[in-house]
Amino acid sequence: MSSIIIDGITTHDGTLECSVRSSADLERFFTDESFRTSYDVPIADVPEGVLAIPILAQVCPVAWANGADVYVDEVDATFARALEDVKESLCDMHNFLEGGTLYARRTIEPEPDATGESGLLFTGGVDSTCSYVRHREESPTLISVRGWTITPDSADDGKWDALRERVSGFAADHDCETAFVESNMLSFLDHPMLLAHYKRYVDGGWYSSVGHGLGLLGLCAPMAYARGMEDLYVAATHWEGVDLEWGSRPDIDEHVRWAGTRCHHDAYELTRQERLDVIADYVRAADPDLQLQTCNDRMDGNCGECEKCYRTAVGLRLSGLEPSNHGYPFSDADYRDLRRSLERGEWVLGQDERHMWADIRERASETEPATSAERAFFEWLESTNLDALISSSGPPLAHRLLWAGARNAPNGVYNTVYPAWTTAKAGLRLVRSER
Description:
Elements (H helix, E strand, L loop, with lengths): L2 E10 L2 E8 L12 E4 L9 H4 L1 H13 L3 E8 H17 L8 E7 L8 E5 L4 H9 L6 E6 L10 H17 L4 E6 L7 H8 L7 H14 L1 H7 L1 E7 L14 H4 L3 E2 L2 E6 L5 H14 L21 H12 L14 H12 L6 H14 L7 H12 L13 H12 L2 H12 L2 H4 L7
Parallel strand pairs: 1-4, 4-5, 6-7, 6-9, 7-8, 9-11
Antiparallel strand pairs: 1-2, 2-3, 3-8, 10-11
């Protein structure tokens, strides 16, 4: 029987660590790293059943993809029930998921010291900034995670430092507290092998399409329990009417909960352009110097040249703001460069981006262009076939051959060639974030 066993959960100086054992058929989905997550609050007094939540949030979707059962000594009863609800939603969304059962020696129902505090997963992008504006009266703790789009690798040190500095500055300016979480949740899982098996079923990567709603929220559980946090918000990427197979949706995130804390998928009723409207109203009323950070290439500012920078700048203009005042170098000449890049297919775009450009196009049809360059771009956007902008070639042939080879190799062969396989991780980690 396929199984995953959670072993030896320990804490030391704010760091949670545990090991994972699996049946032979699932060994290929795990590396030789133990699972680790570090928090900037003490967690020694957090019950083991709550400490188990971060690791369960990562491994359960892997188990469900293989019809495997998961075994743990102790689990928070509220979270155990939440997993059943999340499993049902994910299995309804992805037909390759088979499900499985969580077995615990003990379930607990602890009573944390509630403080009324709320938390918000925060990067400073459009979605999380909109959620901050909507909940600013709560002064939510701004939570940033290192482990997905910014990995624990030394090569990403500069990006993490830049994110910490920027979020800390935003929090200081807006009278909020911060919480920083660092985890190896992607490198303790063999993410390239997960892609080898499941990329053919999903539009993005494993974590973006399957795991990140449950995974990111679950990482926060020990910190939220220690702080007495009652509400935890994650900003929506998509909105009503956008039906994509995405790992963070209302029917996933709204189910996630544990003792003392409920999670919320925020602003799903607003399109991305409407979220920019919320930000624009806030800028005009209270925060004229607000800076956004959405760049795909940098964390210490916006490059102004990637698709996401251009898309955000155009959206800001449609909401009545000057992009250059909020972190985006943008002028009328950029409309020409943006159109050329879209027509030439210079960016790898998926269904996410198609929906977001459609949202911009709808707003543009209701807006009087401010300049001739803007008018020309919006006329082109109105007439263009957005489906033609979506990348149709798929991953490079070399990646597809490597995935197929890894997927079909016996465990013994795979383990022999694993060192070579890991050198391809950078090219195979196809994850995107719209936070």
